[in-house]
Amino acid sequence: MNKLIQWADEALQEQVANADAGISKVMNNGDILDAYNGSVAALGVSIAMGELRPALAIYYQEKSERGARSKANRRSVLDIIARMITKDTDCQLDFSAQGLFAKNMFRHAIEQNDANLKQEIIDCSIALKQVVRTYNLVTS
């Protein structure tokens, strides 16, 4: 878990440095929208209680089902998780092709019946949840 927490923070900082959509657009001086805390926490639960593919499909949607009420771009959560998994050399999955981390992970989940990926995403979401909570969570 210590390695995952380190990779979660690194992946979050990479997303910010690359000015990717999502969390990087709302991070400011160590602040993260509280909506991301909920989105990150719900991902692991959604996968554990259901199936990997439907949970990823919901998170991969560009807009939240709640519309304007939620400021969290859930696809950026998948992007960070995919970056974390790519850092894990034991997992031997690389989702970095063309910089489309979330898309490549989603495509892999659809094409492969990979039970290890399901557990890896759950573990990464737990670590990311812990890291997100080290930032100042603000409401918009």
Account of the protein in words:
The protein has 7 helices and 2 strands. It starts with a helix and ends with a strand. The protein has helices at residues 2-17, 23-26, 34-49, 52-60, 74-87, 101-111, 115-132, and strands spanning 31-33, 136-138. 36% of the residues are buried. The chain is mostly helical. Helices cover 63% and strands 4% of the residues. A two-stranded parallel sheet has the order 1-2. The mean pLDDT is 83. Helix 4 (52-60) packs antiparallel against helix 6.
Feature tags:
7 helices; 63% helix; two-stranded parallel ribbon; globular; 140 residues
Strand content is under 5%
Q: Assign the structural class, choosing from mainly alpha, mainly beta, alpha/beta, alpha+beta, or little secondary structure.
A: mainly alpha
Low-confidence stretches: none
How large is the count of helical segments?
Answer: 7
* Average residue pLDDT: 83
Largest sheet: 2 strands, parallel
Q: Alpha-carbon distance between the termini?
A: 31 Å
Describe the global form.
globular
What's the count of strands? 2
Helical content band? 55-70%
